[in-house]
């Protein structure tokens, strides 16, 4: 019904009469009110805000998403191919998922590096290099949004306030160290870690503020948390292996705590944990099997203790920012120089985060015991992330986890900074919530509300977005198996991306290591076309070699542009953008 309005009419001395009329303005429809409640709900605002913030901080990723790619054209183009291949394999022949078209004639080549398999559903949409680029750029932006949402959800479940959730989300998503990982989507994809922990905590009715409350348990959330954890592991073992062990540690602590107090646990929750854990273990086993096969075939893919010397960061690395940071990049040039040529050793979580976490040791909604445990976790994660640079050469720190299955496949211990950042965020959330409750004056409340912006500011960057080279027309019809020149571990991502429409068997391939046969072909084709290189290519089943004119200039493969085929079992075809050599079977 409409609103009822009372109208009082007074005329002279006559008694006042009251008239009731129905307003012409209709009341909001129930459906409209329902949608309005949904739109202004906390989680709607968090999701929409996280996506908008991610698009802004990663700009100009979405300005030309079908032509450019963030970081460089090395690993990102390879990872764009990964998503495309997984979607293509699931759509056409799931049984050959692990036998990718790259690295011909090797088998199980999809497991030569972290696969990002969890993004396969995105790979089902569209085909070809343009779709692959667009897909990658959209996922790249959403990765930051999910990291924000996951950390926000976790600290809210633990008992912190909304502003504290925004601080933790911003810290986890935009920590300066992430700028050194823009070419490693599997390392940036950490949102599932925080989100899974938040769901599992909610499912078990547990928070830091209130502990375990059986009446608040939600078995459905527990199953969802295990499923998200399984999805996180499917993105890559470099981040997934430590996450798996962290879940095991949390489980052990939870069981010990239960044995001490024996609170009631519903059968529904136990069944939910059984189902969820089964899903998680099945996903982990499915992912592990091909990697174990690769490790058996190529034993050198396991990282030896001496291999870690180069990639282990010293303590000062946790106070150094990558050069693309707008705030700290130039200021930390001297510190970066002192790190030498070690890769991925600028691991600053953020000075604002450090300050808020330090404040959280003094002022917080968490108990003193909880604060001390969180601080101990921060210190332990830093010491472990230092690898061989830790106390005593790391033998009794990172060396203790290095012997666990899976850790010998992790290239750099520094990626454990993910856990440093998350624990600092939780510690800081306690302080921010306490400050927000004490801020009774408007200026103080405004200062607290601006803290998330200070955290985000340290993540503002000057990341490059190079244009991906255009695919030569000759590649559309070149017989497979084929080889594209130039070739190399850091440039093969581009030809892999180019062939995401028909996925022909190709020698080119970029991964965490180089198989011996691929290396032999690369070295032999430096003299192509000659008798030895042609013989090796024919022995490997290669039918065509495509020399890309614009890409080969200035490389050791440039002489192949003028190669002569006299007396050799191959035919030369010149096109405007490439030279194609067709080999006789």
UniProtKB/TrEMBL annotation:
Q: Does the keyword Coiled coil apply?
A: no
Q: Which UniProt keywords apply?
A: Membrane, Transmembrane, Transmembrane helix
Top-level division of the source organism's lineage: Bacteria
Transmembrane segments annotated in the record for this chain:
43-62, 138-155, 160-177, 183-201, 243-260, 272-292, 348-366, 373-396, 416-436
Full protein name: 4-amino-4-deoxy-L-arabinose transferase-like glycosyltransferase
């Amino acid at each position: 019904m409409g609103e009822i309005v009372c109208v009082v009419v007074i005329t002279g001395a006559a008694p006042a009469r009251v008239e009731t009329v129905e307003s012409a303005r209709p009341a909001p429809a129930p459906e409209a009110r329902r949608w309005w409640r949904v739109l202004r709900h906390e989680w709607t605002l968090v999701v929409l805000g996280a996506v908008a913030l991610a698009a802004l901080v990663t700009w100009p990723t979405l300005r030309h998403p079908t032509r450019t790619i963030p970081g460089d054209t090395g690993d990102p183009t390879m990872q764009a191919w990964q998503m495309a291949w997984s979607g293509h394999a699931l759509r056409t022949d799931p049984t050959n998922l692990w036998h990718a078209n790259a690295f011909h004639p090797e088998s199980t080549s999809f497991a030569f590096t972290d696969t990002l398999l969890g993004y396969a559903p995105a790979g089902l949409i569209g085909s070809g290099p343009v779709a692959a680029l667009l897909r990658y750029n959209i996922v790249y932006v959403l990765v930051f949004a999910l990291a924000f949402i996951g950390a926000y959800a976790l600290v809210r479940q633990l008992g912190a306030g909304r502003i504290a959730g925004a601080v933790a989300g911003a810290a986890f998503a935009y920590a300066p160290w992430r700028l050194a990982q823009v070419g490693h989507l599997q390392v940036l994809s950490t949102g599932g870690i925080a989100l899974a922990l938040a769901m599992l905590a909610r499912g078990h009715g547990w928070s830091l503020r209130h502990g375990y409350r059986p009446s608040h348990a939600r078995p459905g959330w527990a199953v969802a948390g295990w499923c998200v954890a399984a999805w996180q592991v499917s993105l890559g073992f470099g981040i997934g292996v430590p996450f798996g062990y962290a879940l095991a540690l949390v489980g052990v602590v939870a069981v010990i705590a239960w044995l001490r107090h024996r609170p009631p646990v519903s059968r529904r929750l136990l069944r939910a944990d059984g189902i969820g854990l089964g899903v998680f273990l099945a996903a982990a086993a499915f992912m592990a099997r091909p990697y174990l096969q690769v490790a058996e075939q190529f034993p050198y893919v396991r990282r030896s203790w001496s291999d870690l010397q180069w990639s282990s960061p010293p303590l000062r690395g946790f106070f150094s920012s990558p050069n693309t940071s707008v705030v700290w990049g130039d200021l930390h040039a001297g510190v970066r120089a002192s790190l030498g040529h070690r890769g991925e050793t600028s691991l600053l979580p953020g000075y604002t985060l450090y300050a808020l976490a330090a404040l959280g040791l003094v002022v917080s909604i968490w108990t003193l015991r909880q604060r001390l445990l969180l601080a101990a976790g921060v210190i332990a994660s830093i010491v472990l992330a230092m690898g061989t640079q830790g106390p005593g050469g790391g033998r009794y720190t990172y060396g203790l986890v290095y012997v666990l299955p899976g850790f010998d496949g992790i290239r750099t211990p520094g990626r454990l900074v993910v856990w440093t950042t998350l624990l600092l965020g939780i510690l800081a959330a306690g302080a921010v919530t306490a400050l927000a409750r004490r801020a009774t004056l408007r200026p103080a409340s405004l200062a607290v509300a601006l803290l998330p912006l200070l955290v985000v500011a340290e993540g503002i960057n000057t990341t490059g977005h190079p244009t991906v080279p255009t695919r030569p027309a000759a590649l559309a019809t070149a017989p497979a198996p084929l080889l594209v020149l130039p070739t190399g571990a850091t440039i093969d991502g581009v030809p892999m991306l180019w062939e995401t429409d028909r996925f022909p068997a190709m020698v080119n391939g970029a991964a965490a290591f180089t198989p011996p046969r691929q290396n032999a072909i690369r070295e032999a084709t430096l003299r192509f076309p000659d008798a030895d290189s042609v013989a090796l290519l024919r022995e490997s089943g290669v039918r065509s070699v495509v020399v890309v004119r614009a890409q080969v200039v200035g490389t050791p493969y440039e002489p192949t542009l003028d190669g002569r085929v006299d007396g050799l079992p191959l035919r030369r075809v010149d096109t405007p953008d490439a030279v194609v050599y067709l080999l006789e079977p």
